[in-house]
What does this fold into?
Amino acid sequence: VAGRSVDVTLAAADGLVDMGTGFDDFTARSLAYATEGVSAAAQANRARLRDAMIAGGFTVYEGEWWHFDGPGAAA
It folds into this structure.
């Protein structure tokens, strides 16, 4: 079984959560671990998303905060 990649974000009852950039924004602020130009709240939200995805067996793609690879995705 081949792995898959997914693009995800966080949402609350009133809409999307601040992640520091929009989806498919390809500036340096979109890097998964970016801090420059990314608010503390957005950094914390990215960490929450990463923690949840890692706990689910996904790996972080460091080039995009929203992109995660499932087990075997690179195989």
In short: Strands lie at 5-7, 11-12, 15-16, 59-60, 67-69. The chain has one domain: 5-69.
